[in-house]
Amino acid sequence: MSSRMVCVADFEEYANEKLARTYKEYFSSGADQCQTLKENAEAFKRLRIRPRFLRDVSCRDLSTTLLGEKVDFPVGVSSTALQGLAWPDGDICTARAAAQLHSCMIVSTYANNSVEEISAASPGGLKWFQLYIMPDRPFTQRLVRRAEAAGYKALVVTVDTPVPGKRYPNLRSRFQRPPHLRIPNFQGIQSSAAPSKDKQNLVRGPYPLDRSLSWKDIDWLSSITNLPIILKGILTAEDAGIALEHPGVKGILVSNHGGRQLDGVPATIKVLPEIVAAVGERLEVYLDGGVRTGTDVLKALALGARAVFVARPAIWGLAYNGEDGVAEVLKILRNELDLAMALSGCRCLAEIKHPLVVGEEYYSKL
């Protein structure tokens, strides 16, 4: 089945042909005119690699640690809602693929399998739980307890979604979650807790976002859990600096929600250096958005990311062949990173440093 699948773009092409139009649009759409969605990938292409040679790259090590947990290579799977649209029990399949490759999966609050089901189906796999802090705080606390009990190693708090972004295709098709897809993590929530009237919440059902979310809620979260907190959606040095003032925060996932929230914000690879400079060695910094090749991974690592996470590529792999499809996508990115390291003179991730990658303007000045 995999003879023609040689790069991530092959999986994208297959998924776009296979998935029902409304499902494809749900995963692929960006906010408004999709400027940020497009720029996430295009910005990587404007970066140039300055390879070094004669450095004996016969042995290469791609392993690293994420908050102290070892992974075999620095590519994980980012949180994506409604994976059941792409494959039955999609979240379980993705978790098993990530565990098989000794990588990390961020499990979505809006997964179609429960935190317990996903954990039980992928024993030994490193999993973080993506959390929306709900207006129903007692429910949020119970959800955190469930993640703790199921063995999740961190909470990834999405901070860029006080309200949903406007995505034209979803609105035109009046997309709603199919009734056969459950969202079991919400068992026990008070659905009367001021549900949002935003049209985009047709996707989410009666589960409200919290428009009042602030830094004090990050402190509240750290007061009820010992799990490390990662902030997903930070895009400025200013917010990264504030994050340093909150002891429970141990990492930042530089993300613009795949270009699905505020159109016109920069590509994540563009803002990565300022976030890294703002936090130094005090927080781990990761990136998602626009990663499609092993050289993209190399560029993100050179600019200071400890690891990258992919979302749509995993969905494309899922649509192709379930667990095996996701595993194939991860293997391609791992092998492409290994190749890029060999061809640029890097034997381990510690040797992938800033001078390796420059913008196009570097050569225009020569």
Automatic annotation (TrEMBL):
<protein>
    <recommendedName>
        <fullName>(S)-2-hydroxy-acid oxidase</fullName>
        <ecNumber>1.1.3.15</ecNumber>
    </recommendedName>
</protein>
<feature type="binding site">
    <location>
        <position position="260"/>
    </location>
    <ligand>
        <name>glyoxylate</name>
    </ligand>
</feature>
<comment type="similarity">
    <text>Belongs to the FMN-dependent alpha-hydroxy acid dehydrogenase family.</text>
</comment>
<dbReference type="InterPro" id="IPR000262">
    <property type="entry name" value="FMN-dep_DH"/>
</dbReference>
<dbReference type="GO" id="GO:0005777">
    <property type="term" value="C:peroxisome"/>
</dbReference>
<keyword id="KW-0560">Oxidoreductase</keyword>
<dbReference type="InterPro" id="IPR012133">
    <property type="entry name" value="Alpha-hydoxy_acid_DH_FMN"/>
</dbReference>
<feature type="binding site">
    <location>
        <position position="255"/>
    </location>
    <ligand>
        <name>FMN</name>
    </ligand>
</feature>
<keyword id="KW-0288">FMN</keyword>
<feature type="binding site">
    <location>
        <position position="257"/>
    </location>
    <ligand>
        <name>glyoxylate</name>
    </ligand>
</feature>
<feature type="active site" description="Proton acceptor">
    <location>
        <position position="257"/>
    </location>
</feature>
<feature type="binding site">
    <location>
        <position position="167"/>
    </location>
    <ligand>
        <name>glyoxylate</name>
    </ligand>
</feature>
<feature type="binding site">
    <location>
        <position position="130"/>
    </location>
    <ligand>
        <name>FMN</name>
    </ligand>
</feature>
<dbReference type="InterPro" id="IPR013785">
    <property type="entry name" value="Aldolase_TIM"/>
</dbReference>
<feature type="domain" description="FMN hydroxy acid dehydrogenase">
    <location>
        <begin position="1"/>
        <end position="362"/>
    </location>
</feature>
<dbReference type="InterPro" id="IPR037396">
    <property type="entry name" value="FMN_HAD"/>
</dbReference>
<feature type="binding site">
    <location>
        <position position="158"/>
    </location>
    <ligand>
        <name>FMN</name>
    </ligand>
</feature>
<dbReference type="InterPro" id="IPR008259">
    <property type="entry name" value="FMN_hydac_DH_AS"/>
</dbReference>
<dbReference type="GO" id="GO:0003973">
    <property type="term" value="F:(S)-2-hydroxy-acid oxidase activity"/>
</dbReference>
<feature type="binding site">
    <location>
        <position position="232"/>
    </location>
    <ligand>
        <name>FMN</name>
    </ligand>
</feature>
<dbReference type="GO" id="GO:0010181">
    <property type="term" value="F:FMN binding"/>
</dbReference>
<feature type="binding site">
    <location>
        <begin position="288"/>
        <end position="292"/>
    </location>
    <ligand>
        <name>FMN</name>
    </ligand>
</feature>
<feature type="binding site">
    <location>
        <position position="108"/>
    </location>
    <ligand>
        <name>FMN</name>
    </ligand>
</feature>
<feature type="binding site">
    <location>
        <position position="26"/>
    </location>
    <ligand>
        <name>glyoxylate</name>
    </ligand>
</feature>
<dbReference type="Pfam" id="PF01070">
    <property type="entry name" value="FMN_dh"/>
</dbReference>
<keyword id="KW-0285">Flavoprotein</keyword>
<feature type="binding site">
    <location>
        <position position="132"/>
    </location>
    <ligand>
        <name>glyoxylate</name>
    </ligand>
</feature>
